[in-house]
Amino acid sequence: MSEKSEQYKNADAIIRNHMMWAMGAGLIPVPIADFFAVSAIQLDMIRQMCKLYEVDFKETEVKAIVTSLTSSGLARLGARAAVKFIPGVGSVLGGITMSVLSGGSTYALGEVFKQHFDTGGTFLDFDLDRLKKFYDEKFEKGKKVAQKMKQDREEKEKKMEDLKNNDPEASVLEKVKELAELRKEGLITAEEYERMKKKLID
Question: What is the mean pLDDT of the chain?
């Protein structure tokens, strides 16, 4: 595999990981806290991508670029965050929506910086108008990707719950395979995997 394609693959992994963290932060029930948590996660994602592509990370410039790219998306995120103030259901409904929007926004930002850096770009030649359009396109795709990730995670969590309930119809081998998949996806640690596997075999 060439160095460039390896970088591209690593950039995809950075984006995916930060999407998952941003989606988790989007579920924080305190409206302003989730917003700042997602911003910090996105900043860390760009910092890691700068390191990957050997581009000097300049926090002030990065924040200015992010603000310019996400201005329309921020208004939507802000409106969704306001839903959390509604007593009772607000934090639940707002959190679910914020989770997907936070993941979508993180995906779009990651794709913008990945494309720019992958073509040899730096902070000196950042074409905001062109990349803003690219961000908006990726934001729409990112919401779908985030929704799919959310559904996949819920399905895996349900499988994990079924394992904990020790479904008698499932064979031990099948359960060990499912445990291995959960470990691969990062939903359980290696220690948890070994402990649960031992319990199944015993």
Answer: 80
pLDDT at residue number 54: 94
Give CA–CA dist 11/111, Å, rounded: 9
CB burial of residue 13 (10 Å; 0-12, 13-18, 19+)? exposed
- pTM beyond 0.90: the answer is no
Give the CA distances from residue 178 to residues 106, 162, 165, 182, in Å, rounded to whole numbers and listed in that order: 29, 10, 14, 6
Q: Alpha-carbon distance 38 to 31, whole Å?
A: 11
Please answer whether residues 146 and 58 qualify as being in contact, where contact means their C-beta atoms are separated by less than 8 angstroms: no
Give, in order, the Cα–Cα distances in Å from 163 to each of 33, 110, 156, 186.
34, 35, 10, 16
Predicted local distance difference test score (pLDDT) of residue 35: 78
43 Cβ contact partners less than 8 Å away, ≥ 6 residues apart? 59, 62, 63, 66
Q: 199, 47, 30, 193: which is closest to 110 by C-alpha?
A: 47
